[in-house]
Design brief:
The complex is a heterodimer. In chain A, about 30% of the residues lie in helices and about 10% in strands. Chain A is an alpha+beta fold. In chain A, the strands form three sheets. A two-stranded antiparallel sheet of chain A has the order 1-2. Chain A has a two-stranded antiparallel ribbon with strand order 3-6. The longest helix of chain A has 29 residues, at about 10-40. The N and C termini of chain A lie far apart (about 95 Å). In chain B, the strands form two sheets. In chain B, strands 1-2-3 form a three-stranded antiparallel β-sheet. In chain B, α2 (about 50-60) packs across α7 (about 120-135), α7 crosses α11 and α8 packs across α9 (about 165-175). By secondary structure, chain B is mainly α. The two termini of chain B are about 35 Å apart. Chain B has helices at about 5-25, 50-60, 65-80, 85-90, 95-105, 110, 120-135, 145-155, 165-175, 180-185, 185-195, 215-220, 245-250; strands spanning about 30-35, 40, 45-50, 200-205, 255-260. Classes of the chains: A alpha+beta, B mainly alpha. Chains A and B meet through α1, α2, α3 and β1 of A and β1, β2, α2, α3 and α7 of B.
Chain lengths: ~280, ~270
């Protein structure tokens, strides 16, 4: 028997449309795979970024992945080891494929190498794209100010912090570059012994820059004080609640009242017995 | 060794750039800091990858002037002078794919393989796709998968799991498709093709000297640009030519040479 499978002839017109469908399909397939991967590649929300970094979403679109910040960090004059005369590992790492951070972007692991909060902040001015924003670290006198850094915030786990047990330890307090400002010691009476004091480390949230020197200094096996991005570690009370004892916050409520009168309900003209029983059928 | 002159020069160029980048991180050299995504020459002249900058615009980033100026400098340099020479004189992945191509010739893989055909225009579609995905995902899409930056950063900051991608590209070029990555898929190559379309430095063919040995076509990573060989004396004008000079190297008949395109003389 003769094999008669012959290729069906197709018109130029059909060919044209099939080609379009073919290419569009391939493009869609590639695009979906690619976009799916891009979504995955965004990395962990726990990532600590260099000083001055834009908020994560903007940072990811603006970082060109050049590594200039990490190089500036490693090669800053203050990072030269006095013993070997060579630079020590820098704080900033450039993410590799296996890290849970978008590949090529800078980050740091506070417990590994914390940020030493250099006065001249060498990592930020070198950024060519503005993903590390100089303006956010510039103070009123138009100088770079390391106090304005905001990489994250230190969080204390009072259950594993031995200072909360009553054992004297002020490692984090002393390691803090803003000593007695970002971490304060709260003195408290130790009821258990009746004659000792607790010296509890308390993080002052507005002051802490998230450098991680406290985490690095912590004496417990797994640090009882650690850095988290502010987005993760902090709550948000929203607009609704007002600190009535705070003039600034009270002003917020006053400003609000001008446009919004719902906080005051007009007094009913009816007697209480009438309006409370409105719509109730007593039959 | 005269038939390897440009090859050796290219390797010197590619490797010394990586050494400079490496030294910038390891020893604090200031000649060339950063990576090929964005660099700084002597801490003053910014250079940036125009494709990366384009993707970042698509992703909705508001960029500082340095990055944009850097991209303009690169576009002007390759656009006026270098053509697509980034691919063959600068890009480190070129060494990987050239190695695959060399091994391919040694193993006679071309002679035995089943033909896989992929359009060489895929790279231009990849550019469009990269911009769309950048727009959708809000981050430069090619930069998260680019083997160029993975190899570049690997040489500076140490390799990670991304090195697997480089091996994959090597194997792809070796066993799947000749010049598969650089000659078909890489969108950065496509961008540099477009940028370098009207560049001054070009290979010129003199068909009077040509003996039709076809050695040039054997080594050329973008064979389609050599369509005039033995037929017409003219410049290699197709934008995909990488100015790698392999054809000039292997030509024993003085029929191919680098020359400067003269737009004034018609």
């Amino acid at each position: 028997m003769e094999n008669t499978t012959k290729k069906p002839q197709i018109s130029e017109r059909r060919k044209f449309f099939t080609n379009i469908a073919h290419n569009a399909g391939l493009g869609l397939m590639g695009g979906l795979l690619w976009a799916g991967y891009a979504d995955k590649a965004k990395g962990s929300a726990l990532t600590l970024r260099p000083p001055g970094a834009l908020k994560e979403e903007d940072f990811l679109s603006a970082c060109i992945k050049c590594g200039l910040c990490a190089e500036a960090c490693t090669n800053r004059p203050s990072n030269i080891s006095k013993e070997t005369g060579k630079p020590r590992p820098g704080t900033l790492k450039i993410a590799k494929a296996q890290d849970d951070v978008t590949i090529g972007t800078p980050f740091f692991i506070a417990n590994d190498v914390p940020c030493y909060m250099c006065e001249d902040i060498p990592c930020v001015p070198v950024c060519p794209t503005g993903a590390l924003d100089m303006a956010s670290l510039t103070n009123k006198n138009n100088e770079l100010d390391f106090r304005l850094m905001d990489m994250g915030i230190a969080v204390v786990d009072p259950n594993s912090c031995i200072a909360f047990w009553g054992i004297q330890c002020d490692a984090c307090y002393r390691a803090c570059p803003l000593m007695d400002e970002a971490i304060k010691l709260e003195y408290d009476r130790n009821e258990r012994t009746g004659k000792h004091a607790f010296l509890k480390p308390i993080v002052v949230m507005d002051v802490c820059t998230g450098c991680g020197l406290c985490e690095k200094a912590c004496v417990t096996d797994k640090p009882a004080i650690f850095i988290q991005p502010r987005d993760i570690a902090l709550g948000d009370p929203g607009e609704h609640y007002v600190k009535g004892w705070d003039i600034k916050d009270e002003q917020r409520a006053i400003d609000q009242e001008i446009g919004d009168v719902t906080t005051k309900t007009e007094r009913s003209k009816k007697g209480a017995a009438d309006y409370l029983n409105e719509g109730v059928d007593f039959e | 060794m005269s038939n390897m002159k440009y090859l050796i020069l290219r390797r010197i160029s590619q490797i010394s750039l990586l050494v400079l980048y490496f030294g910038a991180n390891a020893f604090g050299w200031k000649v060339l800091t950063g990576t090929m995504s964005s660099s700084s020459v002597f801490e003053t002249i910014p250079l940036s990858d125009p494709f990366a900058v384009l993707q970042m615009f698509a992703a909705g980033a508001i960029l500082a002037f340095d990055a944009i100026l850097g991209a303009i400098i690169i576009v002007l340099f390759y656009g006026i002078i270098g053509g697509r020479s980034f691919c063959s004189w600068v890009c480190p992945v070129n060494m990987v794919t050239d190695a695959a191509n060399w091994l391919r010739r040694k193993l006679y893989i071309d002679k035995i393989e089943r033909k896989v055909w992929i359009s060489r225009n895929i790279r231009y579609y990849m550019i469009v796709l990269a911009l769309i995905v950048s727009f959708v995902s809000g981050m430069a899409a090619f930069e998260i998968i680019s083997p160029i930056t993975i190899l570049n950063r690997g040489a500076i900051f140490g390799f990670g799991a991304g090195a697997g991608l480089l091996v994959a590209i090597f194997l792809f070029d070796l066993f799947v498709l000749k010049n598969g990555w650089c000659g078909h898929i890489c969108p950065l190559g496509g961008v540099h093709s477009i940028i370098g379309k009207y560049s001054l430095i070009r290979v010129k063919h003199n068909s009077d000297n040509c003996t039709l040995c076809m050695k040039c076509k054997e080594v050329c990573p973008e064979v389609q640009v050599l369509d005039m060989i033995g037929k017409r004396s003219e410049f290699v004008v197709k934008q995909e030519c990488t100015n790698c000079g392999r054809c000039v190297d292997v030509c024993n008949d003085d029929a191919l040479s680098f020359n400067i395109r003269n737009y004034l003389k018609k």
